[in-house]
């Protein structure tokens, strides 16, 4: 599906840009703890951007309906990586409570992909 290919590519590009920004623009400005949080956000964003691209390819080449899995991964990035980016920059610890929502969305997306593959 074209939309998921675009969403995946945008997120992969953002993961690279935000990773570079963290490595160069935030170096010395954040503690090691918050730099690790930033790195985790970029890593998970990239993994799931690639997952969204895989969903786009599978949706276009098979009859698997993976729309919900694609949206779960997309919103997982927003909640998981997004909350970690904001947490790293603001150090407002309560924002860490949002992160697990994204994690659950990631898990649900991968389970849905697995179920679709079993059914296919």
Automatic annotation (TrEMBL):
Main localization, broad class: membrane
Record localization: Membrane
Membrane topology: Multi-pass membrane protein
Keyword Transmembrane: yes
Pfam families: DUF423 (PF04241)
Keyword Repeat in record: no
Chain ranges passing through the membrane: 46-62, 69-88, 94-118
Keyword list, A-Z: Membrane, Transmembrane, Transmembrane helix
The family this protein is said to belong to: Belongs to the UPF0382 family.
Protein's recorded name: DUF423 domain-containing protein
Organism: Macrococcus armenti
